[in-house]
Structures are given as structure tokens and as C-alpha cells.
Specification:
Elements: H1 2-14, H2 18-31, H3 35-47, H4 51-58, H5 64-76, H6 80-87, H7 100-113, H8 117-126, H9 139-145, H10 156-166
Helix pairs in contact: 1-2, 2-3, 3-4, 3-5, 4-5, 5-6, 6-7, 7-8, 8-9
């Protein structure tokens, strides 16, 4: 029964029926209260533009995916300090940033919005090492880490000339 409900929630999300996904997932969590189901419910809340609801069910969870979803919720509510703490807990400094490149990218955005440009550059430079999660580099990562443009950009010479002028961070290497 749980597998069937999870499948229906994913189907609703794929069909952009976010309110239906929230309803089904709330029933799922009432019947089967596992943390993975709570993560799915938080995802449904985020798709339904309810980051505050996702925040409340994820607060205090320790699994990496839960921490990433909590950070995303905090970021959407402009709670940047809490978002940073979710990705990099102060009491556990050696903990890995969750969700690979996407976690580093989110942390880079948090650093940039809080005025820490050098730390943001480090995170954006760390994200391309895990770029298998992305089809093409995002404009933010490309601008701050000086990596190659997406393959659809035809005039690479013009890109390189403008890119050198606009790039304020230099890639380490």
C-alpha cells in the first residue's frame, strides 16, 4: 500500500497536480510516518509554494536529503542563517554538504546573498566538480567559476571576451 501511495504522489508531481500530491502525501505520512515519506511531503509542500510547512516538518531531521530540503525551505523564506546551518551544522564541522553539486550551489547562493563573495566563489567552484547532476552549467556557476559556456552558445569567442571582463572570481587550479 505504501509503495502504491508513493507512486501516486510522484505521478501527481509529474503532472503538476501539486495540491493533490500534498493531499495524498499527507495521508501517506499519517499512515506510514517514515522520514523518507516526510521528505516527500516536504517536496510536495515546496512544489505547492508552502516552504513554511516543509520547514516545520523537517526541523531537527538529520538525514542529508532532509537537511537539503530544510535549507531550501529556509532559503525560500529568506532565513539565510538557518539555511546555512542546515547545510553546514555548527556542532558538526566535518559533515559533508548534502546533495552534492546542488547543495554546494545553494550554499554559494547563501554566501553571495550574505555578502561573503570569496566563500561563494569557493562553493560555486566546488559545484562543477559534481556537474554530472546538471545538464549544462548554470549562468551563476559559469560566471563565478570561469568554466566553459553551455554547448548551445554559438559564438564562443565573443563569450570568452565578455566573460573575462565580467568574471570577478578566478578559478583555483
Amino acid at each position: 500500500m505504501e509503495t502504491l501511495m508513493v507512486d501516486r504522489v510522484h505521478s501527481s508531481l509529474r503532472l503538476f497536480m501539486h495540491r493533490n500530491a500534498v493531499f495524498l502525501c499527507e495521508r501517506l505520512c499519517a499512515q506510514f510516518p517514515a522520514e523518507t515519506n516526510l521528505q516527500l511531503l516536504a517536496t510536495c509542500y515546496l512544489h505547492n509554494n508552502q516552504p513554511y510547512a516543509a520547514y516545520h516538518i523537517l526541523k531537527g531531521k538529520k538525514l542529508p536529503e532532509s537537511r537539503y530540503l530544510l535549507a531550501t525551505s529556509c532559503f525560500r523564506m529568506n532565513l539565510l542563517q538557518e539555511a546555512e546551518e542546515a547545510l553546514c551544522p555548527v556542532n558538526e564541522p566535518n559533515m559533508e554538504v548534502p546533495s552534492g553539486a546542488t547543495g554546494h550551489y545553494l550554499l554559494g547562493l547563501i554566501y553571495r546573498y550574505t555578502g561573503r563573495m570569496e566563500a561563494a566563489a569557493e562553493q560555486f567552484n566546488g559545484a562543477p566538480s559534481n556537474l554530472s547532476q546538471f545538464d549544462t552549467p548554470s549562468p551563476t556557476i559559469s560566471q563565478t567559476s570561469c568554466i566553459a559556456p553551455p554547448p548551445l552558445f554559438r559564438n564562443t569567442h565573443a563569450y570568452q571576451n565578455t566573460h573575462r571582463c565580467q568574471c570577478s572570481f578566478q578559478a583555483k587550479g
